[in-house]
Amino acid sequence: MTAPLPRAMLIDMDDTILSAYGRPEIAWNIVATEFADELLPHAPQAVAAAIVGSARSFWSVAGAEWRMKLIQARQEVVKGGFAALASHGPALPTELAIRIADRFTAYRDEQMFIFPGAHEAIDTFKARGVRLALVTNGAADQQRAKIERFALAHRFDHIQIEGEHGFGKPE
């Protein structure tokens, strides 16, 4: 006997339906390698490691408001990584930190994809009468763009975006 389906489901978007932000260390290494000549004498791997460390420190204390300013948060993270590197060699320019952070944002967007079978699973639940709500944190414009890009809007009965409603998960 099969268990009955729930009447409704709340479904997260990033890294549940979409491969969006998993494994940042790989992305930072790839992006740092793109800037290898400008990072000398620092090795791209060392720069990426410093940025990942800065990101962990930043996000461990960052308030929810930074989810609305993800681009600026990434710029702060790279600046923090550069500051850590300055104790081991020459300082790198702030302008380069901003370009690397912005490239990371573009790279993550380029690499984003919907998990195989996600549309089908969502459509099956909806067809079987389960009410569906997409619940996601982040800025409204960035999250709406992903919803449109990956054809999610028509699949949900309700969409709750932090940047549109003024509060996010877990609130």
Overall pLDDT level: 95
**Major β-sheet profile:** 3 strands, parallel
Strand order of the largest sheet: 1-4-5
Q: Using only CA atoms, what is the Rg?
A: 19 Å
What proportion strand?
5-15%
* Strand segment count: 5
**Overall body shape:** elongated
**Low-pLDDT windows of residues:** none
Q: In whole angstroms, how far apart are the ends?
A: 36 Å
Determine the fraction of residues in helical runs and give it as a percent range: 40-55%
Query: How many distinct domains?
Result: 2
SS-derived structural category: mainly alpha
Element-by-element helix/strand order: EEHHHHHEHEHEH
Number of DSSP helices?
Answer: 8
Record the SSE blueprint.
Layout: E1 8-12, E2 18-19, H1 24-34, H2 36-39, H3 44-61, H4 70-86, H5 94-111, E3 113-114, H6 118-127, E4 131-136, H7 140-149, E5 158-161, H8 162-165
